[in-house]
Amino acid sequence: MKKLVVLAIALSLTVSSFADSLGRKIYNRYSDEKDVSAVYISPSMFKMINRLPEMDMGGQNVELTGLIKSLDGFYLIDSRNSSVNASLKSEMDNILSDGSMELMLEAKEEGETVRIYTKSQGETMTHFVLVASEKEECTVVYLEGQLSREQLNAIIGDMNHQ
After folding, report:
1. What count of Cα atoms within 13 Å lies in the side-chain half-sphere of residue 160?
2. What distance in Å separates the CA atoms of residue 152 and residue 67, rounded to the nearest whole number?
3. Lowest mean pLDDT across 25-34, 51-60, 117-126
4. Cα gap 51→49, rounded to integer Å
5. Sign of the CA dihedral 153, 139, 71, 126?
6. In this predicted structure, what is the pLDDT of residue 8?
7. What whole-number distance in Å separates Cα of residue 86 and Cα of residue 131?
8. According to the model, what pLDDT value does residue 115 have?
9. Is residue 69 helix, strand or coil?
10. CB–CB of 78/137 below 8 Å?
């Protein structure tokens, strides 16, 4: 029994380590390419935030401080380089097709595709990936953190009640 528990813990740590390094891996691979904009925000930067002003989202004020403080990393790659676009899209498709993340949304319009994937542990979302691709541009947004269902409901509730 002990061996089974140790094996299960080792496997879960391996999967978590792989998932946690995905944003960093993509960022490191593409951030220095020509016609690529890249942004990384560290956990330390998120912890420094005391209070954000409420954000106006479509005429509704939303409090995002709790959400921001729950993040452990933010990676953004935006490419207008056609060879990088093809490589980035292909790599993300391969990574996300393994089933470790759940496809939450897919939207297609006139050659543009937007997909949102999440990974959760119980009631907590731990990873969020947005991939928006078209011929001329590919954007990947990757968030790591511990976002509870209550935080999501509070944000959605704030937006719906105002």
Report:
1. 6
2. 8
3. 51-60
4. 6
5. positive
6. 39
7. 13
8. 92
9. helix
10. yes
